[in-house]
From TrEMBL:
Pfam families: CoA_binding_2
Organism encoding this protein: Pacificibacter maritimus
InterPro entries: CoA-bd (IPR003781), NAD(P)-bd_dom_sf (IPR036291)
Highest taxon above the source species: Bacteria
SMART domains: CoA_binding (SM00881)
SUPFAM superfamilies named in the record: NAD(P)-binding Rossmann-fold domains (SSF51735)
The protein's name: CoA-binding domain-containing protein
CoA-binding domain residues: 15-112
Amino acid sequence: MSHIDRLNDPDIKRILTETRVIALVGASPRPERASHRVGNFLAAQGYKVIPVNPGQAGKTLFGQTCVASLRDIDEPVDMVDIFRKSEDVLPVVEDALEHLRGLKTIWMQLDIINDKAAALGRAQGADVVMDRCPAIEIPRLGIDKVGETTLV
């Protein structure tokens, strides 16, 4: 088994079809940044993407108002999608588990691996995805829009 995560395609498909609200940590307004492209892609797929970036708080990204931290989100969130260096992930996961009501999934983007954060998330009952990108997984798995699939 690779270091990626413990989830198979049906697990990833379930996560992506059941998720509705995503907190995107490290959201950038710069179009050349991966977090900007992925956030826009997810919003276009029908997800509500709440951007999290203290330097952008109050501004609009992905059709939503950016918040400074996960603590500023006052609605249930299904997934936290993390665009931070691997060594910076643990405090993000700790905050997410403490402050996000309804959190089901912790998603670490491509090249982001933190086994301690993953173990903490799993211990709290969350699915944990590492070193993957939902903007790659959604078309690969045939997911057209939130809640819709074209492949069986």
